[in-house]
Amino acid sequence: MKEDVQVLSDKSYHFGKRVVDIWGSTALCLAAAPLMVCAAIAVRLSSRGPVLFSQKRLTVGGREFSLLKFRTMYQDTEGRGWDMLAQENDSRITPIGTFLRKTRIDELPQLFNVLKGEMSLIGPRPERPELAQKFEERIPGFSRRLRVKAGLTGLAQVIQGYPRYIDGYRQKLAFDLVYIKRQSFALDVWIVLKTVGVVVSGSGAR
Questions:
Q1: From CA 88, how far away is CA 150, in angstroms rounded?
Q2: Is the pLDDT reported for residue 174 higher than 70?
Q3: Residue, of 44 and 76, whose pLDDT is higher
Q4: Alpha-carbon distances of 191 from 12, 158, 160, 162, 170, rounded to whole Å
């Protein structure tokens, strides 16, 4: 893990990826609009609190942005430190939130983050600043994930799912660095196809 990882410098790839991000997120927003409306209504009626949940995350260069999600936890139950990480059968998650997480519908508002250029459709999943700092202390080099824009889905997500322990985050870093080193349209398409399979099967949800 000590080997330095270079970011792909192909300008045509990065330009094309941004074009795909804009068109892809726009098309997905339009296609998923009825689903998002239904999800918003369900969240609103099922528990007290806002429909959307905004949380500080990190993207390329360590820049902070406000990531959007449909709220899946009861209001004011977000933990601190390691307690931030959701676990199986987490009592903080609402009944409708469990469904939204399993189907990944809770992630759909992040399409607006992609449109704004804060995220890409494909890339390392964005971490919270507080956790990223803790991971860097325990896993030297964890910040190398920030050499590219954070993604709605990524190589680590489709292969590993959500890590639960510190060793899982070491593996997550390894997959993210492989993606950074081998970025290509072919790999992006493969990740998209794998993501569809993950969403359909509901595997790796938490």
A1: 25
A2: yes
A3: 44
A4: 20, 7, 12, 16, 20
CA angle, residues 112, 70, 17, in degrees to nearest 5: 30
3-state secondary structure of 61: helix
Q: What is the dihedral of CA 111, 112, 114, 118, to 10 degrees?
A: -140
Per-residue CA distances from 21 to 30, 81, 107, 152, 195 (Å): 14, 32, 16, 10, 16
pLDDT at 198 over 90: no
**Distance from C-alpha of 27 to C-alpha of 108, rounded to nearest angstrom:** 12
**148 vs 79, 139, 176, CA distance in Å?**
28, 19, 10
pTM: 0.85
For residue 66, the cross-strand partners are 56
**Under 8 Å between Cβ of 178 and 159:** no
Domain boundaries, the chain: 11-200
Mean pLDDT across the stretch 153-182? 88
Whole-number Cα distances in Å, 87 to 104, 162, 186, 199, 204: 16, 10, 33, 19, 12
Count other C-beta atoms under 10 Å from residue 85's C-beta. Answer: 15
Radius of gyration of the chain (CA): 17
